[in-house]
Each structure stands twice: as structure tokens, then as C-alpha cells.
């Protein structure tokens, strides 16, 4: 797949995938996570959503860094359109960061949105960003298909675990999710 994508590169796709890949460059993900965490705190006057997003993004980063130290996989044998970071190819940290941030953001926003059409739009954007990053990383010769697949899985697992542990943990005698109890308390 890497060779086929590299053989069919065009200047238009090179530009588009440069943007797609940059959607989850480390400085952007760190800054966007900080901005979102501050915005959530100011908007909902609590830390629940902010802590969830930070944990989802940071946990994928920690697992990614530990995995790349152990695995040490080389990048595909094609021309790389991006500078290769010092980490190995497996798994894709760009993809796992994109899933953790954009899907985590979508989850938070949709838990506070009643409009079904808006929820669908939020999730379409929340899923489109990591898929764009995944394709971009493949196209640009930075990862094998298995690298981005495991990056998607890593990001998804971190979002689900953080959501169950923080947003949707069962609390109180009623056994209701924490996010529902906090929203109900604010509405009162």
C-alpha cells in the first residue's frame, strides 16, 4: 500500500495531506487540549470534562511512547514527505492523538447537546479528523496500514477507558453517570 500511494502522489494531494497530517501534530494537540480544557471549565463551571479530555489525550501519549520504545519498527521504504520523528513507526502517534482529542471532544460536546442533527454533525467531524490524519500519514509514507490501525485502536481504547472512569462512572445511590448528575445539579 505504501508503494502504491507513493507512486500516485500529486501536488494537490501532497498539500491536502500536509494539512491532514498537521491536524494532530504534537504542538497543536497539546495547545488544543489546553484550550478545550479551559473552555470546558469556564463553560460548565466544573473540571469533569476537562479532566476527561486531558486523561484521554495524555494516556494515549504515554502508551504510544512506551510502545515505540519496545517495538522500534522502521518506517515504510518510500520517500517520506514529513520529517520522521525520533519514535518508531508503530503505532501511529498522530492517529492515536487525533482519535483521543477529536473523538474525546466530540463525546464531551454531544453529552451537552440535545439536538440530534447537531450531535451527528459533531461526530462526523470528530471521526473525519482522525480518518484524515490516518490517510495522510499513509499517503505521506510515514506509516504502514497496521501502524495507523493500531493508532486508531489505541486512541479509541483511551477515550473509552477515560470516559468510563471519569465521565460515565456510576455514582450515587441511583447509579447514574457522573456527567448526568453534574448536569442535573447545574440545571437546578
How would you write the strand order of the largest sheet? 1-2
Helix content: over 70%
Kindly report the CATH topology. Vanadium-containing Chloroperoxidase, domain 1
Let me know the largest β-sheet: 2 strands, antiparallel
Query: CATH first level: which class?
Result: Mainly Alpha
Distance between the termini: 55 Å
Secondary structure: number of strands: 2
CATH architecture: Up-down Bundle
Class derived from helix and strand content = mainly alpha
Task: Provide key terms for this protein.
188 residues; mainly alpha; Vanadium-containing Chloroperoxidase, domain 1; two-stranded antiparallel sheet; 8 helices; 73% helix; globular
Description:
The chain is mainly alpha-helical. The chain has one domain: Vanadium-containing Chloroperoxidase, domain 1 (Up-down Bundle), CATH 1.20.144. The protein has helices at residues 2-7, 11-22, 26-44, 48-71, 93-111, 116-139, 145-167, 178-187; strands at residues 170-171, 176-177. Strands 1-2 form a two-stranded antiparallel sheet. Strand 1 (170-171) and strand 2 (176-177) form a beta hairpin. The model has no long low-confidence stretch (mean pLDDT 89).
Amino acid at each position: 500500500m505504501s508503494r502504491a500511494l507513493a507512486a500516485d502522489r500529486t501536488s494537490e494531494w501532497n498539500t491536502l495531506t500536509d494539512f491532514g497530517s498537521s491536524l494532530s501534530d504534537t504542538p497543536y494537540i497539546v495547545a488544543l487540549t489546553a484550550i478545550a480544557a479551559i473552555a470546558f471549565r469556564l463553560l460548565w463551571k466544573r473540571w469533569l470534562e476537562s479532566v476527561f479530555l486531558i486523561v484521554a489525550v495524555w494516556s494515549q501519549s504515554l502508551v504510544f511512547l512506551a510502545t515505540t520504545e519496545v517495538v522500534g519498527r522502521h518506517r515504510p521504504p518510500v520517500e517520506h514527505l514529513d520529517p520522521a520523528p525520533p519514535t518508531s513507526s508503530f503505532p501511529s502517534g498522530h492517529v492515536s492523538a487525533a482519535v483521543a482529542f477529536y473523538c474525546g471532544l466530540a463525546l464531551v460536546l454531544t453529552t451537552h447537546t440535545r439536538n440530534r442533527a447537531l450531535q451527528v454533525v459533531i461526530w462526523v467531524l470528530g471521526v473525519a479528523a482522525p480518518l484524515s490524519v490516518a490517510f495522510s500519514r499513509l499517503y505521506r509514507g510515514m506509516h504502514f496500514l497496521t501502524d495507523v490501525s493500531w493508532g486508531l485502536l489505541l486512541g479509541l481504547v483511551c477515550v473509552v477507558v477515560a470516559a468510563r472512569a471519569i465521565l460515565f462512572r456510576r455514582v450515587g445511590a441511583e447509579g447514574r453517570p457522573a456527567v448526568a448528575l453534574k448536569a442535573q445539579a447545574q440545571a437546578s
